[in-house]
C-alpha cells in the first residue's frame, strides 16, 4: 500500500488568497478593467487600466494610453 509522506510531497500549490486572476490581453472584452501587475500595491504604482480597443488600454487615473500586445499577461481582480 502507498504511504503518504507529507515531508517528501513535491506538489506546491499556488497561494489561495490571491485577489488577481491572470489573462492574456486579447482575451478581455472592450471596457474591461485590468491591472499590469498582480501585486497589491498602492493605487499609484499598480493603477487600473481600461481596455479601449484590441491594441490599447487607458490609465483611468491619468488618461494616458498604453499600447498592449495580444499575448501580454494582464490581471483582473476576482
Describe the structure using short key phrases.
78 residues; single chain; 6 strands; two-stranded antiparallel sheet; mainly beta
Detailed description of the structure:
With 78 residues, the protein is mainly β. It has one domain (18-77). The chain has no helices and six strands. Strands 2-3-4-5 form a four-stranded antiparallel sheet, with no helix packed on it. The chain has a two-stranded antiparallel ribbon with strand order 1-6. Strand 3 (48-53) and strand 4 form a beta hairpin. The radius of gyration is 17 Å and the shape is elongated. The mean pLDDT is 85.
List the helices and strands and how they pair.
Blueprint: E1 20-24, E2 33-35, E3 48-53, E4 56-59, E5 65-67, E6 73-77
Antiparallel strand pairs: 1-6, 2-3, 3-4, 4-5
Bin the strand percentage: 25-35%
Query: How does the overall form come out from the CA principal axes?
Result: elongated
- Poorly predicted tracts of residues: none
What would you call the structural class? Answer: mainly beta
Total domains: 1
Structure, briefly:
This protein is mostly beta strands and 78 residues long. It contains no helices and six strands. Helix content is 0%, strand content 33%.
Amino acid at each position: 500500500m502507498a504511504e503518504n509522506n507529507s515531508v517528501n510531497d513535491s506538489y506546491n500549490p499556488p497561494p489561495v488568497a490571491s485577489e488577481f486572476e491572470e489573462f492574456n490581453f486579447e482575451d478581455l472584452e472592450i471596457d474591461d478593467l485590468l491591472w499590469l501587475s498582480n501585486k497589491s500595491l498602492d493605487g499609484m504604482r499598480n493603477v487600473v487600466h481600461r481596455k479601449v480597443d484590441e491594441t490599447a488600454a487607458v490609465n483611468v487615473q491619468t488618461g494616458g494610453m498604453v499600447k498592449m500586445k495580444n499575448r501580454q499577461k494582464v490581471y483582473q481582480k476576482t
